[in-house]
Structures are given as C-alpha cells and as structure tokens.
TrEMBL record:
GO terms for cellular component: nucleus. SUPFAM superfamilies: ARM repeat. Residues 34-330 form the Interferon-related developmental regulator N-terminal domain. Gene3D superfamilies: Leucine-rich Repeat Variant. InterPro entries: ARM-like, ARM-type_fold, IFRD, Interferon-rel_develop_reg_C, Interferon-rel_develop_reg_N. Belongs to the IFRD family. Residues 1-59 are annotated as: Disordered. Keywords: Developmental protein, Differentiation. Pfam families: IFRD, IFRD_C. This is Interferon-related developmental regulator 1. Residues 1-10 have a biased composition (Basic residues).
Amino acid sequence: MPKPKKRGSNHQRGAGGQPRNVQPFSDEDASIETMSHCSGFSDPASFTEDGPEVDEEATQEDLEYKLKGFIDLTLDKSAKTRQAALESLKSAFSSKILYEFIMERRMTLTDSIERCIKKGKSDEQCAAAGLACLLCVQMGSGIESEEIFKTLGPVLKKIVCDGTASIQARQACATCLGICCFIVTDDITELYSTMECLENIFTKAYQRDRDTNGVSSTHNTVLHVSALLAWTLLLTICPMNEVKKKIEMHLHKLPSLLSCDDLNMRIAAGETLALLFELARETDADFFYEDMDLLTEKLRALATDGNKHRAKVDKRKQRSVFRDVLRAVEERDFPTEMVKFGPERMYIDCWVKKQTYETFKEILGSGMQYHLQSNDFLRNVFELGPPVMLDAATLKTMKISRFERHLYNSAAFKARTKARSKCRDKRADVGEFF
C-alpha cells in the first residue's frame, strides 16, 4: 500500500493552517486532512476562550479567512468534508455576529445550502438545514432574508413532505421551515401556506389516534413533534382571526396526543395546549372550553404521574412541565422566568414568549446569550431595545478571569460539601454498638 503524501510543509499552507488554494479537494487524503481543521474550529468555546489580549482586527481577518475556506469546502466531493464544513459554519454563526461577512456571500451560502439539502444524505441535510436557520437569524427580517427563503422554502417543503427522505432530515427541515418563515415572512399567504404544510404532517398523529385506542410511538413521532412545535411558533405571529380558526380546528384534537407513548410528544402537546388557551383568552376574555373537566383530569394525571415503567428522569421532567400547563389551563397562571445575559435581564412571563425563546435557544445553543446581547433581530423579537453599548474598560471590569472563576467554584464546592455533610450527620445513626 503506497504511503500517503506529506502535506505539512510550509510552502503549501497559508495563515490559519488552511490550504492556500481553497478549491475543492479531490483525493481522500486531502478530505481527511480538511476534516481535522473543521473539527478544530467547530468548538464554540474557541471563540470565547480566555487568554492574553490580541489584535482584534487580525483575529477577525483570520476568522474570515477560515470561514471562506469552509464555504468553499461545502462544494467538496467528500460528504464528510462537506458536513464538517457545514458544522464549522454553524458554530461560527451561532457564536459571532457576522452580518457584513455574510451579506457579501449570502447567495453563495444559499446555493451551497440548497445543494447540500437536495443532494446530500441525512446528516448533511440536517447540518445544511441548521445552517439555513442560523443564516436567517444573522440576516434578520429584511429583503435579503426574503430572497434566501424564496430559494430555500420550496426545497425545505419538498423534503418535509417526501415520505422517502430520512426522518431526521424531514425533522430538521420542518424546524428550519418554521424558523425561517417566522423570521422573514411578511407575506401572509406564504405564512398560511407554510402552516398548512406543517399541519399536514402533525395531524397524522390525530388520524392514528382514531385507528387505535391510544397514540402509539412510531419512528414518525419525532417528525410530528418538530412539525407541531414549528407550527405553534408560526401561530404566535398570525392575525387574531386566523388564531381563532386554528383554535377551533385543533383545540379539541390536541388532548388525544397527551396519551402518546413518547415523552416529547406529550410535552409538545401540553405546551401547545397551554399556548392555545393563552391566545384564546386574549381574543375572548370569556372563552369557554366544553371538555375542561376531562382535560384538567388528564393534565393532573400527567402532573402527578408515578408509573414505574417510566424512567425517573422522564417522570420528573413530565411532572414539572405539566404542573405549569395545568396552572395555565386551570388558573390562567404562568411561572415567570428570568434570563440573564451580560448586564441585562429578560423576563419570560407568558407561553408565547417561552415558546419563542425555547425555539431560538435550541438552534443557537450556547450562543443564545451572545445573540440576545448583540443581535438586532432577536432583541426586536423580545422587545429589548437597541443593544447596550459598553466600552472596553467596562467590559474588562465585568469579565472574571479564569483563576478567579476557579477560586469561586472551589469555595462554592467546599460550602456545598460542608452543608451536605451536616445533613448526613443529622440523618446518621450516631449510637455506639458493643
């Protein structure tokens, strides 16, 4: 077997460890080598790692150089290389605001995403759909994002409705379709069309319920959950007359999904019910639901579920969620949550806001706090006003060094250990035996 050629010589590489020529590689060795660069870049912590002060302009140039390489690698012949490049771009887009860089390359990125969704396999399609979400989050609601959605929307709908495509790809495309439509659509016709597409997916769970005594968990359940959550997100931006129609259509059918074997489906159905009741009472203060007693009985059973055949973690999560759902349906109450990001605070005080926050947190991951501070679109969605501008000196005083964090964590650990030891001493039998 011939030895692979060495590729570590300096004359073959530019700054950042990337090949000087960023054309797609054709041999397997180059693809494997490229993946190592992609995986090294894909860790979000690499953007925020503590260290000595560096030239921000040089760092930005190095970042953009790497990103250009990854964009080119989305055209590579190797599926693994394309997927690794997509994941690296996702990591960058979720961790930084790159509006100007993306603006210059939005059509190239859109074409790459479209090609990966159309031609790629399941994992590549999922990565491309995730990148499409982040692309729209970066661009915000504007003409450019509308152009992106006009290109990708039909492709996403085709995959969602394609029964031969993998469930994971259809699930990712359903989520992407809902988020992108939420961000960019001013056209009410497109909004209704997208919601109808998602309805055609999750309402199949209703049909299955009519054929059996309960909703059984199948491999399609994850797709139904994603379609339901994406549809619920779009419902929050619908006109009130359309909201009334959707409530009349789905409110008496959704409780059947509470009997599903799948925990995520039960939770999605419960949270959607809470949101529908919240919207219904906003449109009509005297809103009355005929089967309220039966519904509250179901919700109470889920909030106090003690079935031994369920995992303890699942039971705790279910009880926590359905206690809140029951309070929302029965008492019109919502437990307010506080989200901290930098020097700011945001209060989540309704189900609509909770649904929106959870959706964007799912796609942004650890970058959610950064985007809440800096992303104009997200700040507008949550009514946070313009970004708070802090000078470098203020930011430096607010930042805690790694050594200080270590000391704080050590002290907190010792305090917890002492407190737990005291509790154990009180429970322990201290008598002597002879």
